[in-house]
Design a protein that fits this description.
This protein is of the alpha+beta class. It has eight helices and 18 strands. The protein has two domains: 131 residues, OB fold (Dihydrolipoamide Acetyltransferase, E2P) (Beta Barrel), CATH 2.40.50; 223 residues, Chloramphenicol Acetyltransferase (2-Layer Sandwich), CATH 3.30.559.10.
Length: 382
């Protein structure tokens, strides 16, 4: 019997949610076959098997929180691996890097704890491979493969519509950007405290509902952010309702439905609506109303790993924000001591026809204050 220990799946990650088992107890699997799909605050990843064998025990149910360095599943490897070679310890990301580099990870001497193969071990071996091959004589023109013509595919549907919309927005709106760092420790703590309560209502709580509500509260102080420019470009139209768009990555492309009347919704209601919109978007079931009337947009690139971005404004809106992934970084506290802090990069694009840089910075400061000290939102909630 061999216990599979959940490896490190990202810097600073100590637990993850089990989204789905890709196998069942009694299944026969092969080495590197995906066994489970898990989700962290940063990404969704598949966990592969280190050996071939038979699954004997799954230690978690779908939706459970699995701990890093604890058993995830058990398998019988006695028959399939009686003559197996040494297996190196490595995270799924490092194994994938080795596979993509064409390197047998079991031949690498790991520099990490207990011989664990680290990313640097793989890249250094890959560099040696490239250096050795660089010494080989170059192929002559006659030995090179024949160049084939490029394939042209006409843009259709959502892709074509997005291309036209983005080109118009970029050409007609004078963009400017404002970026800042936001400390997320307090908001992460509140999310952790409330996650179980939301789960009882079958709602997966993320940081986004808090960000959406905080954005609405900040726009009460700065209504210009919730405005748009008239079609003739000669008037500013201020919107009393906060219809906040959220960019969703779907199999058919990026789509931006919006949450209606955020100013009147609770964080619970916002989380519920986000879950409904994401599910509908993934199944191509969004209504026309879901996609119309947005007044400002949030693009959360963090879950797939982005840090900074320069988002294009969703015309006729006048502002859009891109949120980077949360990183645990060293910062100085008030006593000039170096401490670890959870930092998220915030990147605004604004329409310079109606918003100046100073206004955008002051607005962003107001929004970030709600994220840094989320308890401040309580004074405005009904």
């Amino acid at each position: 019997m061999q216990e599979f220990i959940l490896p490190d799946i990202g810097e600073g990650i100590v637990e993850c949610e089990l989204l789905a088992w890709l196998v069942a107890e009694g299944d026969t699997i092969v080495e590197d076959q995906p066994v489970a799909e898990v989700m962290t605050d940063k990404a969704t990843v598949q966990i592969p098997a280190m050996y071939s064998g038979v699954i004997t025990k799954l230690h978690y149910q779908t939706g459970d929180i699995a701990k890093v360095h604890q058993p995830l599943f058990a398998m019988d490897i006695s028959m399939q691996n009686s003559g197996r070679q040494h297996k190196s310890l490595a995270s799924p990301a490092v194994r994938r890097l080795a596979k993509e580099s064409g390197i047998d990870i079991n031949l690498i001497k790991g520099s990490g704890n207990k011989g664990r193969v680290m990313k640097g071990d793989v890249t250094s071996n890959s560099l040696d491979f490239v250096t050795r091959n660089a010494l080989e004589p170059l192929k002559t023109a006659g030995q090179l493969p024949t160049e084939t013509s490029a394939e042209s595919t006409k843009m259709r549907g959502l892709q074509a519509a997005m291309a036209k919309h983005m080109a118009h927005a970029w050409a007609s709106i004078p963009h400017f950007t404002v970026s800042d760092e936001c400390t997320m420790d307090n908001l992460l703590a509140i999310k952790q405290t409330l996650s179980a309560q939301f789960a009882q209502a079958d709602i997966k709580l993320t940081l986004l509902p808090f960000m959406v509500k905080a954005l609405s509260l900040a726009m009460r102080e700065f209504p210009i952010i919730n405005a748009s420019v008239s079609q003739d470009g000669e008037a500013i139209e201020y919107h009393s309702s906060h219809h906040i768009g959220i960019a969703i990555d779907t199999p058919t492309g990026l789509i931006v439905p919006n949450i209606k009347n955020v100013q009147a919704l609770s964080i619970y209601q916002i989380a519920q609506r986000i879950q409904e919109l994401v599910k509908a978007a993934q199944h191509n079931q969004l209504s026309a109303e879901d996609l119309q009337g947005g007044t400002v947009t949030i693009s959360n690139i963090g879950p797939i790993g982005g840090i900074t971005a320069t988002p294009i404004i969703n015309h006729p809106q006048v502002a859009i924000v891109a949120l980077g992934k949360i990183q645990r970084l060293p910062r100085f506290n008030e006593q000039d001591e170096v401490v670890g802090v959870n930092i998220m990069n915030i990147n605004w694009s604004g329409d310079h026809r109606v918003i100046d840089g100073a206004t955008m910075v002051r607005f962003n400061n107001a929004w970030m204050q709600y994220l840094i000290q989320p308890v401040a939102m309580l004074t405005h909630l009904r």
